[in-house]
Design goal:
The chain contains 15 helices and six strands. With about 350 residues, it is mainly alpha-helical. The strands form two sheets. It has a three-stranded mixed sheet.
């Protein structure tokens, strides 16, 4: 603190100081007699300032002992190396990309952009609350996972480069607090002038955030999760085709009535009797009773245009589950279309 005050003008003095519990090494207290001491010079030579700052910042938290473990810091080193290689490679590849939102072609691309900017805002909030561990978990690991998944599953590589071009400057800025030297190098690779440490954060682009398409994507992720879970239960790697069946239209109408009348069975039946064609459905009463038993009106239901959405994300689902997807095929040997519910497709795996 004394050095900081001596070097910098008053406007740059620390405004808040936070403390954590003592640092321990490999589960034991530091002590010269035990040979469990790491000097600052040794940290610089062995690990680098950025690696140590990142490791301590992500591992430390209030009321928790920070346990310095060589195995863990080596793992973090690999993460940072992977991050640096990924960003520098994509900066070069996106040189000729204009980075224009209007050029995005797929809905998946807009989902990713929305999710990343939500993460930026959440990370900044964590930083303001001095939750450094959470800030790094979001700004480094969670965003890195999103962009890597996007790179793997998108069909449009130009869309990927556009998304990268739109987000990477803000990404480097928010990470520069913890890994400043690494971010300065990447700032230079990008051809920017000056230093990233002198850049002033602007408000993150909330216009990129779209709750509606994220809600739609949650439905797709639920479908993927159901397929992977069934695949796991079947203990099979070989799948010829996967068949998805959406519910009959009348079930959506009945669901609306149930959500309106909740657990009042008499009022539900009274509303249903207004449509005699509906009352002739053999599945009607069992379906109503099932929905009442599950208290469906209390659950958060992702309401989307299922068929349209499944068609839009068909290639994404196929990449995730590594199999061809058929939507509402007439081929239905196990009558899975009969068990389909609104926003919960029936599923048959042909293996």
């Amino acid at each position: 603190i004394f050095h900081h005050v001596a070097i910098f003008p008053e406007k740059n003095w620390p405004k808040t100081i936070t403390l954590i519990e003592p640092l321990i090494i490999e589960g034991q207290k530091m002590g010269k007699s035990k040979g469990k001491v790491i000097s600052l010079n040794e940290i610089q030579e062995k690990y680098s300032a950025d690696l140590f700052r990142f490791y301590i910042s992500h591992g430390a938290d209030f009321s928790v002992y920070m346990d310095f473990r060589k195995r863990e810091i080596d793992t973090v080193k690999n993460h940072l190396t992977k991050f640096y290689n990924f960003i520098s490679d994509k900066i070069i590849k996106s040189k000729n990309n204009m980075g224009e939102f209007k050029s995005l072609k797929s809905k998946y691309s807009k989902v990713v952009l929305s999710k990343i900017y939500k993460k930026f805002i959440e990370a900044e909030r964590s930083l303001n609350e001095f939750n450094i561990r959470r800030y790094l978990q979001i700004s480094f690991y969670e965003i890195f996972n999103i962009i890597q998944d996007f790179s793997q599953y998108t069909e449009d590589k130009n869309d990927f480069l556009t998304i990268f071009k739109l987000i990477y400057i803000d990404w480097l800025k928010i990470l520069s607090l913890t890994i400043p030297h690494l971010c300065e190098e990447l700032w230079e690779v990008s051809g920017k002038n000056g230093f990233i440490s002198n850049q002033i954060w602007s408000d993150f682009k909330k216009d990129y955030i779209d709750d509606e398409i994220e809600l739609e994507f949650r439905y797709i992720e639920n479908v993927v999760e159901d397929i992977l879970n069934i695949k796991k239960l079947l203990k099979t790697q070989k799948m010829n085709k996967i068949y998805l069946y959406t519910a009959n239209k009348w079930m959506y109408d009945v669901l609306d009535i149930i959500k309106l009348q909740k657990d009042n069975f008499d009022l539900i039946i009274a509303d249903l009797k207004k449509d005699q064609n509906l009352m002739r459905k053999k599945q009607l009463i069992p379906y109503v009773k099932t929905q009442l038993k599950e208290r469906i009106w209390e659950k958060e239901i992702v309401e989307v245009e299922e068929i349209k959405l499944l068609e839009q994300f068909k290639s994404y689902i196929e990449k995730r589950v590594k199999c061809t997807i058929m939507i509402n095929s007439k081929f239905d040997p196990k009558k899975k279309s009969h068990v389909a519910k609104p926003f919960k497709p029936g599923l048959f795996i042909d293996s």
